[in-house]
Amino acid sequence: MGYPKEGDNIQIHSYKHNGLLHRVWDETTILKWSQDLIIGGNDRTMVTESDGRTWITREPAICYFHSKYWFNVIGMLRDDGVYYYCNVSSPFVWDGEALKYIDYDLDVKVFPDMTFILLDEDEYEQHRKQMNYPNVIDLILKKNVEHLMSMIRQRKGPFSAEFIDDWYERYLYHVK
């Protein structure tokens, strides 16, 4: 199975715990690919929902996936600053077709001033019961939410001051 290289375009597929496809991002440009870390960029990419509806992203975004973290981070570049949308999810896998992960409902939205809110706790509880998330998954997810919030507070990893700017410059190089 071949791995994408810098500059290649891939799809991103999000699933739910029950194995059903949740959402597909049609095109993301690979900026970094290693065993543990994938960074991609996209702008105005088509997103297809599980019910077939489609929409187009509104702004450039830098996507951060790590093989050891149960979350991924999308930094969206808007006129008034960078907003982050963090999906609590399984670590990514690459199967030769797409980068894939399981979306576990909880999300953290981070504002340009680095304040943040935890979203969709009700949806998480509903799906946890409906899809029988194992207790070990529940514990892993809660521990990773704490780690994610710590990274935000400390401005580490994708939340550091220069991260999005540096990777966006690399993205612009590839889409010229």
TrEMBL record:
Residues 19-156 form the DUF402 domain. It catalyses: a ribonucleoside 5'-diphosphate + H2O = a ribonucleoside 5'-phosphate + phosphate + H(+); a ribonucleoside 5'-triphosphate + H2O = a ribonucleoside 5'-diphosphate + phosphate + H(+). Keywords: Hydrolase, Magnesium, Metal-binding. It comes from the Bacteria. Its EC number is 3.6.1.15, 3.6.1.6. SUPFAM superfamilies: FomD-like. Has nucleoside phosphatase activity towards nucleoside triphosphates and nucleoside diphosphates. This is Nucleoside triphosphate/diphosphate phosphatase. It comes from Metabacillus lacus. The lineage of its organism: Bacteria, Bacillati, Bacillota, Bacilli, Bacillales.
